[in-house]
Amino acid sequence: MKAPKSKLAKKILKDDTAARDLVEAIRKNQEGIRFQGRKISIRKVGKSGSGGDDSSSDGDI
Amino acid sequence: MNIAFTTLVIFLLVLPGVLFRYAYRKGFWRSPVQLGTLPEEISSGILFALIIQLMSMAAVRYVVGWEIRFDALLVMLTGWAPVGEAQTAEYIASVSEFPFRILSYLVLVNLVFYFAGYGCHKLIRSLKLDLRFDSFRFNNEWYYLFSGEARVFEYAASERSFRAVKEILEEEPVDLVYLTCQVEAGNTPWLYYGILSDYLFDKKGNLDLLILQAAQRKKFSEIPHQEDGAESPRLQNIGGHYFLLRYAEVHNLNIEYIALPV
Description:
The structure holds two protein chains of two kinds.
Chain A: H1 7-14, H2 16-27, E1 32-35, E2 38-41, E3 43-44
Antiparallel strand pairs in A: 1-2
Chain B: H1 3-26, H2 38-64, H3 70-78, H4 85-96, H5 99-126, H6 129-132, H7 141-147, H8 162-171, E1 176-185, E2 188-201, E3 207-219, E4 236-237, E5 243-246, E6 250-259
């Protein structure tokens, strides 16, 4: 079954580099990525507060 | 009346109930229907079939005016006629005289209740009854988990009104699902990361494959301890469009629903 994916997510996933950046940014709890010259925010659904660059923590699981 | 004929009659009578239940549980999902134990399936199939047949027979009687000969039906089901051969012959004649009516009844009832099953499924989903009441929840937990609808179940049933459920799901729509999977390869545990693209089930309805996009991985042992203060090593990118992970090999699975607000 198809997992949910918005139009923007599909666009990002078509770009290999942007997709890798996105996965890395989610893992590291970063606020967002740059994609086609604009900033895309990343937010974990249902979690309060912004992610912020949290690369000092392992951010793995 | 031989046993094969009686079995055929029972099968034809129970079939609409089975089709209705199948279509109701399957709905418009691609995942296969997970069947319960055989006694459960048979008992609920017979119960549904009984209700469906009674409704259909009443409808046929009042709408078209066809009389259902329950006595003849009983003889066909049991293969036993208490009133002698002449009466048995009359029962058989009452069936054989109207083959078109019987055939059209069976075809119509099966078709109507097959599509009614889909209709009920759609109705339940449209009214979000499966998200509001546990008794209506479909046996498709992976769908609820991977679609993000499982978030609703965090709330008590009394808080899950139609409007509340709609608000929970629409307030923060899920743009993508990010997975972290711990997989053992040999004796080495690995962490795989990626965006969930698709997930497939086996014939029994168990989750079989997770299909990831932009997949990355690293060894579990490479996760730095927080007190080390070490930078987490960059992940190994896995090339290719899709990465297939067999669910049977996944030890732990972490799901994160991600929103990409513009």
